[in-house]
Each structure stands twice: as C-alpha cells, then as structure tokens.
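tokens incoming
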C-alpha cells in the first residue's frame, strides 16, 4: 500500500504537465439506496480522442454541436469500457451526467440496486485502445472511509477486490 501512495504522490507532480495517461474511478457503496455510486475523473482531451475513435467521427468535447448526442456518445463509451460484478454477478450501470473541472471532467454513474458487496470485480478499459501507457486507478469504498485500490491498464483491464 505504501508503494501505491508513493505512486500517487509522484503522479500529483506530473498532473500539471499531463505527459502521461491516467484516470481515477471511485466506487462507493450507498447503504441507503443499495447502489454503487461511481465517479470517474478523466482528462477531457484524452477522452475526446477516445470518443472520436470509438464513434468514428470528430468530437469536440468542450463545444459540442449537439450536447444530447455527445451525452449519448459518452454513455455508450463509458458503459462499454466499464463492467462490474458483485460476488460474480454482473451489475447494470447507468450514466447520470458529467461536469468539467479544468483539464479533466468528472463522470457520474450508478448501479442498479444490488446486495452489499463482499467482493467486487471491475473491468475498466478506459482509453487503453488509444494510449498504451494508460493507467486506470480504481478506489473502492466498502463500509470504510479508507478505500481499497487497484491499478488497471492495457493487458490488465480487470481486477478483483474483497471487502
């Protein structure tokens, strides 16, 4: 775990230059709604490249000609690149929306109602088709304030965490 924190600290210094490719996904179990709440932070310029390739058309993320169409393209891409299984059972994920924050954007998703997870398997292949050095950091909060973490990337898009 100490190695993970050193990795994150070193990445913090590099964020300003953006010479690398990384995303952050936070997954939290909401006991009241019995759903997983998923937040993903992705550099919007990287996502713009991925969306353009995935949908085979030029996409302007910051100034879309048709915002509704862009939302559908984002939803399609995110749902294809993210899969979750709780205790080996596939979970449906719904796209809620996004907000732009400087050079990145936060994307919000939620699961269908599911039982409290004892283990969670995550497939996150965001941007891996477009950037061979892409790293996707996943932080899962079960009932604790401290997350369990895993780093996924090209060739290792799926990982499992136990509660």
């Amino acid at each position: 775990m100490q190695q993970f924190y050193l990795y994150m600290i070193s990445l913090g210094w590099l964020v300003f230059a953006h010479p690398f490719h990384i995303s952050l996904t936070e997954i939290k179990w909401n006991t009241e709604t019995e759903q997983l709440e998923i937040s993903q932070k992705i550099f919007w310029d990287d996502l713009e490249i991925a969306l353009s390739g995935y949908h085979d058309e030029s996409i302007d993320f910051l100034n879309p000609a048709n915002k509704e169409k862009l939302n559908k393209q984002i939803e399609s891409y995110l749902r294809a690149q993210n899969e979750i299984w709780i205790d080996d059972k596939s979970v449906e994920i719904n796209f809620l929306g996004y907000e732009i924050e400087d050079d990145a954007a936060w994307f919000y998703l939620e699961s269908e109602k599911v039982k409290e997870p004892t283990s969670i398997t995550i497939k996150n292949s965001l941007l891996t088709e477009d950037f061979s050095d892409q790293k996707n950091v996943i932080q899962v909060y079960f009932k604790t304030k401290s997350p369990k973490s895993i780093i996924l990337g090209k060739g290792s898009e799926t990982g499992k965490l136990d509660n």
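note: The first helix runs from residue 2 to 14.
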